[in-house]
Amino acid sequence: MQESTQAELKHLLNDPLPKKIYCDSNFFVSCILRNLPARHKACQAILLRLIKEKTLVFFNTIVYYESYIAFLKNILERSGRSKNLFVSKPEEMEPYIDIVKNDYNRLIELINGLYTLQIKGNDKNLIDSILKIHVKHKLDVGDSFHLGTLLFSGEKDILSFDIGDFKKIPNINLWCNIY
């Protein structure tokens, strides 16, 4: 059997869903933020499908961190402020706290509304998997956490809008709303 050199692209709205699917942070963020209306609309349809088909959605705890950062950057960009304000001058974040908190609370509600399994990063073998992925595929840290968790869990289906990086990974199914 010949090994694949790229991920197999699966269409979230058309192809039969697997029983279990790993979700990248960008899916959760796109469900909440409306910066990309077409993606947001697709997310709503995908959410309904995941709920209706009782698909197990699993993810790593990094989803909370990456979502928090995305919510911060989003409100700062919308307000015409530097995306790095939360690092350089965190005291200037005060006017935006309630907005970020609302987005984060919506994330928690969304996750609680799904059939989920949270993979915690406290297993030595998980970290080994993440490090190997990071070195082998030259992914950024967040994507290495996602892919490492996916493979550590013995699964191969990942829901992500990060097509550019994940499509280069052999022997996984990359679920997105485009081909």
Terminal CA distance: 24 Å
Radius of gyration: 17 Å
Biggest pleated sheet: 6 strands, parallel
> What structural class do you assign from the helix and strand content?
alpha/beta
The CATH architecture category equals 3-Layer(aba) Sandwich
CATH class: Alpha Beta
For this structure, the CATH topology is Rossmann fold
Strand element count: 6
Can you walk through the features of this model?
With 179 residues, the protein is an alpha/beta fold. The chain is built from 8 helices and 6 strands; from the N terminus they run ββααβαααβααβαβ. It has one domain (8-176): 5'-nuclease (Rossmann fold), CATH 3.40.50. β5 (157-159), α8 and β6 (173-176) form a beta-alpha-beta unit. The relative contact order is 0.22.
Keywords:
alpha/beta; Rossmann fold; single chain; 179 residues; 8 helices
Quick synopsis:
The chain has 179 residues and is α/β, with parallel strands linked by helices.
Task: Please render the helix and strand layout as text.
Blueprint: E1 8-11, E2 20-23, H1 25-32, H2 37-52, E3 56-60, H3 62-78, H4 85-88, H5 97-112, E4 116-119, H6 124-137, H7 141-152, E5 157-159, H8 163-166, E6 173-176
Parallel strand pairs: 1-6, 2-3, 2-5, 3-4, 5-6
